[in-house]
Design goal:
The protein has about 180 residues and is of the alpha+beta class. The chain has four helices and eleven strands.
Length: about 180
């Protein structure tokens, strides 16, 4: 007999998504131009720019093998949602694969995790292999991101994010902080 209250509650294979989406990311052709447009048309900013590649990201893999790739990113928020813009620079990446298949646009949804190794193990057990990751980009050698092969099943890629305790100084900020705004 089944009905309300009679079904057993099972833990989903990927409980890590319970905390909701922390980030939405777009792959863009021209990072600087896109950031200026988000700021001009929507007032989103400030934007913090980083170049992810070696040596900033010392541990990188692609499809389970050590890799070297480079991308430029810009981070900001709209409301409580972090927005990430990514410009492919070099190497075999999930971004290049996405551009080749779909062109530019929404690439992934990011979910925060506390234990990356446990989250990757849960994802792989559920049938979602890791396709690319990078680790060690925080000043203390922490920080880890990992992309899962989820597009076929759910229509987009999932990124697992274990943020570093402290972020490094950005390459630049847009718009540039004014003297009056510094230290505020």
């Amino acid at each position: 007999m089944s009905g309300p209250g009679t079904q057993s509650v099972q833990e989903p294979p990927l409980p890590l998504l319970r905390n909701g989406v922390a980030q939405i990311a777009f792959v863009v052709k021209d990072l600087d131009r896109t950031v200026r447009n988000y700021h001009r048309f929507f007032g989103i900013g400030p934007w913090y720019f980083y170049t992810y590649g070696k040596p900033l990201v010392p541990r990188m893999t692609r499809n389970g093998k050590p890799s070297h790739y480079t991308m430029r990113i810009a981070l900001s928020h709209f409301g409580s949602m972090r927005i990430e813009l990514i410009e492919q620079v070099a190497g075999d990446t999930v971004y290049r694969e996405f551009i080749d298949r779909h062109g530019y646009g929404i690439h992934h949804l990011g979910f925060l995790v506390e234990d990356m190794q446990e989250a990757i193990a849960q994802a792989e057990a559920a049938g979602f292999p890791m396709t690319q990751d990078g680790a060690g980009f925080g000043p203390d050698g922490d920080g880890h991101y990992a992309y899962l092969d989820t597009e076929e099943q759910i229509g987009t890629t999932i990124e697992l994010i274990q943020r570093p305790k402290v972020r490094r100084e950005p390459d630049k900020i847009y718009p540039e902080p004014t003297e009056a705004g510094k230290g505020a």
